[in-house]
Amino acid sequence: MVIRKTIQELEEKYKLELDKIVENIKKNKAKKVLLQFPDGIKQWATTIVDELESRIDGVEFFIWLGSCYGGCDVPDVEGKVDLVVQFGHSKNLRFLG
After folding, report:
1. Of 3, 11, 29, 94, whose CA is between 20 and 30 Å from 39?
2. Exposed / middle / buried, residue 19 (Cβ in 10 Å: 0-12, 13-18, 19+)
3. How is 62-84 classified by DSSP, letter by letter?
4. Which domains does the chain have, with CATH numbers?
5. What is the pTM of this model?
């Protein structure tokens, strides 16, 4: 059974800070952005990407499908993307560029 959620429902529950993500992408002039989600949010990754794409042009988003065991579990994508955004349980997003 697929559970569909609107971006508003997701932001209320998970505090995704999408404005902060868009601001950071613009600040870093990132064109390729990898989004890394914990397993509990991964099922809504495409909804989040759709929202980000509606807010910012010219950025290619990638979703990390591998495991994510926390802030120390950063994918080795050096030179392949401009920015990595890690979603997690912390009150602060992590931007790795």
Report:
1. 29
2. exposed
3. EEE-S---STT-----TTT-SEE
4. 7-96 (3.40.50.11840)
5. 0.79
